[in-house]
Design goal:
The complex is a heterodimer of chains A (487) and B (357).
Chain A: E1 25-26, E2 33-36, E3 46-47, E4 54-55, E5 60-63, E6 72-73, E7 78-87, E8 95-103, H1 124-133, H2 146-150, E9 160-165, H3 174-181, H4 183-197, E10 201-207, H5 211-221, E11 227-232, H6 241-249, E12 264-268, H7 269-281, E13 287-293, E14 301-306, H8 311-317, E15 327-330, E16 337-338, E17 352-356, H9 358-361, H10 374-378, H11 385-393, H12 397-402, H13 413-417, H14 424-486
Helix pairs in contact in A: 1-4, 3-5, 4-5, 4-7, 11-14
Chain B: H1 18-65, H2 77-87, H3 95-110, H4 123-134, H5 136-139, E1 142-143, H6 156-164, E2 173-174, H7 177-186, H8 191-194, H9 201-206, H10 218-230, H11 237-256, H12 264-269, H13 273-280, H14 291-311, H15 318-335
Antiparallel strand pairs in B: 1-2
Helix pairs in contact in B: 1-2, 1-3, 1-6, 1-10, 2-3, 2-4, 3-4, 4-15, 10-13, 11-13, 11-14, 14-15
The chains are: A alpha/beta (487), B mainly alpha (357).
């Protein structure tokens, strides 16, 4: 298949061999499961259960609220122990409402929605609805509700479903293992999604460093002419949505637009597998494969864990720490988030748990920029990190925005490559937050102004009306007097 | 618990760091330097040690004054500045030339601007030009090679007298090829005649000619430059720009009037062209950050070098050309930013060609 080059990028140490040959293992049910109401982009779900209530596996325990949201389901059968606030796997470490379930050990399925008998003759809306009801969100890490992205066919002229199996982050092997072990399920899910989107073509893109996954997927897709499995060059950040679309189709997504605007919808391979489960068996998303790796963990693994298992449970399953980790990461080492602790639960978008040694993180204090320009050459978005960072250091967000800081995808390539160890992405994330806050303030001010103007107008109108009434009364009175005088 | 969360990702880092970068450049300079130390003997070595040592000492002093960590004195940047400065001096110049040069380079050109990464102009070239303007006689006292251990080479005692005693033997001075051609031209002797008396291109490439340590032995400098390219410390853009600009100007004007203008190949092979193109114009701090910008910058250096060599009072123009282009670096940076993903060169989102439903 003809591929197209993407700009820049880096070649970090992938270190995938730590876990790539470890087959997926199921985590034994932990003592308690913690299911946060917000595991996705959008509005948090709304609790449907109360303390003490018995639930069965797959039963909806919180429903979605609004257009962009996702429901939560019980990962196993048991009792709702509490609905309480506990820290979420978010760098802030802030608490959020979480349903705590005590498993009863029977792992008994609830009565699930019926399988969709022939998904390929089903209405696309039916499939999207099933996906929405099954709580499926993007499993590559972004956790955007998948059903919303399956509805794009009605709004855009689409031609390709691109299944992202690039897994360009170092260490992570969960998608690799899922593709090797469950290729058939992914292919079936992809075909169902393609039908829902109304696209004639499916491309499954996998980085060339996963030859077994490529072979397994090619084999599983052999019977279907509309599916192409494409090996893509090992070049971080190949798995970035827009860059992968460019590599596969040669089309460049315009700034501020979606890939759907240029005819392509991208879903993660694990998401396709979840769609297969939801449509063929009515099973909601209650578990996911997580790579536990890093030099500080005793034994790396790819674990199929129920949503809500604590990170500590997974680490313990891997034999605990071999050494004190210098860094605990949720996701990959390039774009992952720091984990606030071991007590946070596994959520739907968590692809990896990394316990990294100081040698692996190679953190060093920042020294002055020597303007080597490497960040400019490798930026996959064509930005100028060195200049943006200089402006952000001076809190000049306007200038940073003019240079395109809002176009930055935070892939981390510039920070990784910087010889002065300047935390460039940290600057950019800070600037994005500040610019967004300024934008919110500006909108709020504008709204206040509009409301204030409306208020003034209303007051004026009322005064006008009163004056008019007074004048009318006066006129009436005058007319009466005149009448009397005439009489 | 363990995690002190104070920074976004990435949680891994490439192997590069400033020190490694600087020492790789020094390594690339080593063969040419060693060969030139051999060519010009003990006096050259003494001057080299004085210049580099003075740069490191002054760097340390400035760091103390600026209350900055002393670690920065050993990041290799001061050594590199001293090294490049030493390579641009007449090899038998007295010790105070090197020491004074170190003051110009490190204290004035670098630390008054804020230290590493903050200086507008290349410190080594600022020092060289300041010395050249202040002490034109000493700075143009070139000698022919006197290879170590050869009969004509000064011993260590003679060398100490030359470097520290100011006893430059009169008989050994020689003109560089560029200087010779220029002088002859000013006497009305056309280039076509004077060229017969300069070393042939092969000797110039190998280094058997008069000049500073960095001017001779183009081949070893080239080898060092290629090594830096292979290690991805520099790219081909700046060197190609410099050499291309110089060669094209030389060739073009030589074709117009061979009696007045030397040819392009002579320009490329003489003076500090190779050192300038691979090691000085490529200085990170004072050259543009984008590849496109580096090409523009390099071409500017090449063209200006030719202009200064041809029309100005000095036979060699590389240092002046680099400083002039240094001043344009911020502007070049501004106009050579890469095109952002999904945007036109002007920064507008790319048009959507009728894909809406």
């Amino acid at each position: 298949m003809k591929l197209f080059p993407i700009r820049g990028g880096i070649h970090p140490d992938y270190r995938k061999e730590q876990s790539s040959e470890r087959a997926i293992v199921a985590l034994p049910l932990p003592a308690l499961l913690y299911i946060p109401l917000q595991q996705h982009i959008g509005a948090p779900a709304e609790v449907l259960v109360s303390e003490g209530q018995a639930v069965k596996k797959g039963q909806m325990i919180a429903r979605s609220t609004g257009a962009i949201s996702a429901p939560q389901h019980a990962p196993t059968s048991g009792t709702v122990k509490a609905v309480t606030e506990i820290p979420a796997p978010h760098p802030s470490g802030l608490a959020q409402t979480t349903i705590v379930i005590e498993p009863d050990g029977r792992d008994e399925w609830a009565e699930l929605p019926a399988a969709i008998a022939d998904p390929f003759s089903a209405d696309p809306q039916t499939i999207a609805e099933r996906v929405a009801q099954s709580g499926i969100v993007g499993m590559g890490g972004a956790a955007f509700p998948s059903a919303v992205k399956l509805n794009l066919g009605s709004r855009f002229k689409l031609d390709t479903l691109l299944l992202n199996g690039a897994e360009c982050e170092p260490y992570l092997t969960c998608d690799d293992r899922v593709m090797r072990e469950h290729a058939g399920e992914i292919v079936d899910g992809a075909r169902i999604m393609a039908h829902a989107l109304g696209v004639p073509r499916v491309v499954i893109a996998i980085e060339d460093n996963k030859p077994q996954a490529i072979a397994a997927m090619t084999e599983a897709a052999r019977a279907f002419a509309e599916i192409v499995v494409a090996g893509v060059p090992v070049q971080y950040p190949m798995g970035s949505e827009r860059h992968l679309v460019q590599a596969i189709t040669g089309r460049e997504t315009p700034a501020k637009k979606l890939t759907a605007d240029i005819g392509v919808v991208v879903h993660n391979v694990a998401t396709a597998r979840a769609v297969h489960h939801a449509v063929r068996f009515g099973r909601p998303l209650v578990a996911r494969v997580v790579t536990v790796s890093g030099g500080a963990v005793r034994e790396a693994n790819n674990i199929e864990a129920p949503i809500g298992a604590r990170v500590a449970d997974l680490i313990a399953f891997c034999g605990g720490f071999a050494s004190e980790p210098a860094s605990l990461v949720n996701g990959g080492p390039m774009m992952g988030q720091p984990l606030p602790g071991l007590d946070v639960p596994v959520i739907k978008g968590m692809s990896g748990i990394l316990a990294l040694t100081a040698g692996e993180t190679n953190t060093q204090p920042a020294s002055p920029c020597i303007r080597c320009g490497t960040c400019v050459s490798i930026c996959p978005c064509g930005l100028v990190p060195v200049e943006m960072a200089a402006f952000i250091r001076k809190d000049n967000f306007e200038a940073a925005a003019r240079l395109g800081v809002m176009d930055c995808v935070s892939c981390g390539s510039c920070s990784w490559v910087c010889p002065s160890h300047i935390p460039l992405v940290h600057y950019f994330n800070y600037a994005k937050g500040m610019i967004n806050a300024q934008e919110r303030d500006r909108r709020k001010n504008e709204q206040t102004k509009v409301l204030a103007e409306a208020h003034t107008l209303r007051v004026e109108k009322a005064a006008e009306a009163r004056r008019a009434m007074m004048a009318a009364k006066k006129a009436q009175a005058a007319a009466k007097t005149e009448e009397k005088a005439n009489a | 618990m363990i995690n002190a969360i104070n920074k976004s990702g990435p949680f891994t880092h490439g192997a590069s760091n400033v020190q490694k970068t600087m020492y790789t450049v020094l390594l690339a300079l080593l063969p040419a330097t060693a060969f030139n130390a051999y060519l010009f003997g003990w006096p050259a070595l003494l001057l080299f040690v004085v210049t580099v040592g003075a740069c490191v000492v002054i760097e340390a002093g400035c760091l103390i004054l600026a209350d900055q960590p002393m670690k920065a004195a050993f990041d290799g940047s001061a050594v590199l500045t001293g090294w490049l400065l030493a390579m641009s001096l007449p090899p038998w110049a007295p010790w105070w030339i090197g020491a004074l040069g170190a003051v110009f380079a490190i204290a004035l050109a670098k630390h008054t601007f804020g230290g590493l990464g903050q200086n507008m102009f290349n410190p080594a070239m600022v020092a060289r030009v300041a010395l050249l303007v202040s002490f034109p006689v000493v700075m143009t006292a070139w000698v022919l090679p006197h290879p170590l251990f050869s009969a004509s080479a000064p011993g260590l005692g003679d060398a100490l007298a030359i470097t520290f005693g100011g006893q430059m033997p009169d008989s050994v001075s020689a003109a560089s090829a560029l200087g010779y051609v220029k002088t002859e031209l000013s006497r009305g002797i056309p280039v076509t005649q004077s060229m017969a008396h300069v070393p042939d291109l092969m000797d110039m490439a190998l280094g058997f000619r008069a000049g500073s340590m960095g001017e001779t032995s183009a081949i070893l400098i080239l080898a060092g430059g290629l090594f830096l390219m292979a290690r991805r410390i520099i790219s081909w853009h700046t060197p190609l720009g410099v050499m291309g600009g110089l060669f094209l100007m030389g060739t073009l004007f030589h074709a117009i009037d061979p009696a007045r203008y030397t040819d392009g190949m002579f320009h490329v092979m003489s003076g500090a062209t190779f050192l300038g193109a691979f090691f000085i114009a490529t200085d990170y701090v004072t050259s543009p950050v984008s590849k496109k910008g580096q090409l523009v910058f390099g071409a500017g250096v090449g063209v200006l070098t030719w202009v200064i060599r041809t029309y100005a009072g000095y036979p060699e123009g590389m240092a002046f050309a680099i400083l002039l282009m240094n001043s344009l670096t911020p502007i070049i940076d501004q106009y050579t930013r890469p095109r952002a993903f999904g945007r036109t060169l002007k920064g507008e989102p790319l048009p959507l060609a009728g894909r809406d439903k």
